[in-house]
Amino acid sequence: MGVNHSNLIPQTTPDDQVLDNALRPKTFGEYVGQNNIKENLRIVIGAAKKRNEPVEHLLFHGPSGLGKTTLAYLVAKELGANIRVTSGTALEKAGDVGSILTGLSDGDILFIDEVHRLNKAVEEVIYPAMENFKLDIVIGKGNSAKTLQIDLPRFTLIAATTKISMLSAPFRSRFGANYRLDFYNQSDIEEIVSRSARLLNVNIEKEAIKEVALASRFTPRVANRLLKRVRDFSQMDPERSSRASGPEGTHDSVASATSYGMDDTYITANTAQKALKMLEIDDKGLEETDRKILLAIVNNFDGGPAGLKSVAASISEEESTIEDVYEPYLMQMGFLARTPKGRVVTSRGFEHLGLKNKKPKLL
Ligand SMILES: Nc1ncnc2c1ncn2[C@@H]1O[C@H](COP(=O)(O)OP(=O)(O)O)[C@@H](O)[C@H]1O
Ligand SMILES: [Mg+2]
Fold first, then answer.
1. Is 65 a pocket residue for ligand 1 (Cβ < 6 Å)?
2. How far is CA 358 from CA 302, 308, 316, 346, in A?
């Protein structure tokens, strides 16, 4: 599959995790956008505090990188509560979740990321725990086996998922509140880039902030990664401008730049454009794999409908990666549609690829 320099599947590299943590907002005030969710959470948290009760169980869902994990930490912080973090893949056996639950204290938060990955056995332990704060344990085997019920502390479960459709209806209904995170708008992303630049001691022109934001798929995590890559590029750029020894004409830009810290490089719109071009990210934030997906459907399936399996096979990419990482944004942009018969490239998608839509689509 060659080298993957995608900015979209980077959670696995320690470097990117460090970046995530370094730039993660520490207060609701620093958390840009998603105003409805913030307002609603403020009420939920305030009411729980007033009643001196734990907050009801909360579910955050939406595409990767939009700030679900961050919200979980912020809720814990706001409550002054301990947070225990785990994920749907880490909890393999009923006993795994049992021992975590019994180790909690009243008011603690249990955060389960990728909660759609929980298996049945673990879900069955979680249901009664969420509802009645009880845990059933089976002691012994066969005929002499006995079930013992023990009381659990009054904890709050916060769960996050990119795939709400994979949660069963009864599980979903056990959450007191359910929040859907949406893609951000351009000005929110610009604010996030600007904030991150400040934290990373990067000087960046207003126009460059705009360029980075435009390429960021309206997603904070992508914005932060691109900012870092653009910064790296700009430090290696032979034509780079610097405050100390920059070429003529840079002073005006510096004055109008959002300039922070002591770093002597600053990112101009021109550098940002060059860096994004080198990363093969186009003006709508699409990267190579996005274009491959669209082109595969156009070239091999006449624009669609094409099944996910076939698309995945024809570009040698994992189905789940296509579905979770690439498609949400392609659909948000109106380049791709999911129909009951399969994926279809829309006329907007054709247009973006610079192609003529051969057959009129029923869309
Ligand atoms: N609303 C926001 N304001 C500022 N930065 C944000 C916001 N949401 C997310 N981020 C940044 O994006 C990164 C990814 O967010 P995260 O909460 O890990 O996303 P998710 O859990 O939804 O995949 C965070 O580390 C943070 O730096
Ligand atoms: Mg997360």
1. yes
2. 8, 22, 26, 11
